[in-house]
Amino acid sequence: MSTTTPTSNSPALLDAERYHQIQQFYATQMQLLDDGAAAAWAGTFTEDGVFAQNVKPEPWRGRAQITERMTVGLARVAASGLVRRHWFGMLAARPDGPDLVRTRYYAVVYQTPWGGRAEVYLSTMCEDELVRTDEGWLVRYRMVAHDGVG
Amino acid sequence: MSTTTPTSNSPALLDAERYHQIQQFYATQMQLLDDGAAAAWAGTFTEDGVFAQNVKPEPWRGRAQITERMTVGLARVAASGLVRRHWFGMLAARPDGPDLVRTRYYAVVYQTPWGGRAEVYLSTMCEDELVRTDEGWLVRYRMVAHDGVG
Amino acid sequence: MSTTTPTSNSPALLDAERYHQIQQFYATQMQLLDDGAAAAWAGTFTEDGVFAQNVKPEPWRGRAQITERMTVGLARVAASGLVRRHWFGMLAARPDGPDLVRTRYYAVVYQTPWGGRAEVYLSTMCEDELVRTDEGWLVRYRMVAHDGVG
């Protein structure tokens, strides 16, 4: 995976306007996923967007494949009776021109079994390339690195 | 409970100014609760504010009742020797005029027993109606849906 | 430790510009720590910055000591094979002039053993004095109070 370790106290902060837009984009995007809306979630990627994870041999490429694979994944979660919640936090963001932002952030997933107790399911470090389009901000590339995986 | 599933990548983002005000309002509000200040916490609701949970048969209505019920709840937590921390995250917010904002977000509660290890206590999905008043932002209606509860 | 319990719905909110800068500063700062960069992390404190914790008899004082102590701590974590992620949340912030901000927030640490399952490691309440300098925002004083510790 690409690693873009931030240098100390980077001078290239993102402006408040785009920073809060991306916070809201992430909230809306991941609520769609946790609501089980695979196709709408895939629609938050560009048409040729890439979703890579260090626990998968190949990235998922394009909205059609992302929809297909995530539909299968969400069906498995639903069948297990688990409620999953994706949280993003510690969002570092660097502008690369007006319409491209590179982010590096953490994501944690909580899960609650039906009638049971909530627990942490996994912890990750993520990197996105986000582009501003006529449809709003979209993910062009996402790399999710699960912690503790080689 | 009312469900307002966000549509993909909603165009009606909240502006940066109100978004960060609400982030700060939530931080202050829930620190009050975790500090054990039931009456001050109730004061972050409107005088006739409503606090509903899917684990309670009836919502709590108005500052007086919210104070009374939360005082009992906090006394129980204090007696158990647990430190609780309420975290809100993944905040999606939609304006409805200048002084009303509807939010949909996640909340997780951590708890730490005295001398013991921190753990996740519960995971929820929440919806608020927030109004801007002379006292600042206040909750007019809050619905907290605990995960894994029917 | 000093305790600055916020009063209800404080009128002295921080402006959006500085609030998002501090959110980004915290994200970058703690990613440095989790990446194992002790000296760079110490560089996010002022030259004479103080890092106090309720689980340590004495605060760490100045970048040199902070670097030295954190280098030891990070080596111990690395040797244990654990991946740690520091999350800050529920950020309340109050300006004290243009270049000083006092914050009160929560921090949680997740850890994942190599090949194992993520878990909550600890929950804390933190207070910072942040100053704006030619190097950007820096921590002049940080107090981390671990929950459940007397």
- Read across the widest sheet of chain A, the strand sequence of neighbours is 2-1-6-5-4-3
The CATH architecture term of chain A is Roll
- End-to-end Cα distance of chain A, whole Å, is 11 Å
What share of residues are in beta strands of chain A?
A: 35-45%
CATH topology annotation of chain A = Nuclear Transport Factor 2, Chain: A
Instruction: Report the order of strands and helices of chain A.
Output: HHEEHEEEE
Query: Any idea of the CATH class of chain A?
Result: Alpha Beta
Reported for the largest beta sheet of chain A, the result is: 6 strands, mixed
Descriptive terms for the model:
homotrimer; 150 residues; alpha+beta; Nuclear Transport Factor 2, Chain: A; six-stranded mixed beta sheet; 6 strands; 43% strand; disordered N terminus
Protein architecture, described:
Three copies of one chain form a homotrimer. The first copy, chain A, has about 150 residues and is α+β, with helices and mostly antiparallel strands. The first copy, chain A, has one domain: Nuclear Transport Factor 2, Chain: A (Roll), CATH 3.10.450. In chain A, about 30% of the residues lie in helices and about 45% in strands. Chain A has three helices and six strands. The first copy, chain A, has helices at about 15-35, 40, 60-80; strands spanning about 45-55, 60, 80-95, 100-115, 120-135, 135-145. In chain A, strands 2-1-6-5-4-3 form a six-stranded mixed β-sheet, with helices on one face. The termini of chain A are close together. The relative contact order of chain A is 0.20. The model of chain A is unreliable at about 1-10 (pLDDT under 50).
